[in-house]
Amino acid sequence: MDLDHEFSLLMAEHAFGLTSYQILERLYSPPSTHNGDNTVSKLISFTVELLEGTILTIEMTNNKFKVIKSTDLSLDMPKSYDDFSALLIDNSHLYQQKMNSMISDRLFQHLNTL
């Protein structure tokens, strides 16, 4: 998985508070060519199963995330992750600090390998 894909998943974890889950499926855009240069495929959606069994399909567009399918029919489907995040994110100070630290650590590791 390249840096773009990993960073996208990290941002989704942060946006949705996905701390106990399993990724079931990732869908990537096909690689395209522009003036003969190959470009990498981009992660455009992924399906996750949360610890309590809810399965979500999350779509990504321009680094914004949105839930497009959920097996929990009691959830009012949101238009964007800003609405949905209130349902899943634990907004405690320690949680935010932990997530920010994890994202920073991962990015720092990747930058050191470049």
TrEMBL record:
One Pfam family of this chain: GSKIP_dom
Transmembrane ranges, per UniProt, are none
Question: Which InterPro entries does the entry link to?
Answer: GSKIP_dom, GSKIP_dom_sf
Per UniProt, residues of the GSKIP domain are 40-107
Q: Which domain of life is it from?
A: Eukaryota
Its name, as the record gives it, is GSKIP domain-containing protein
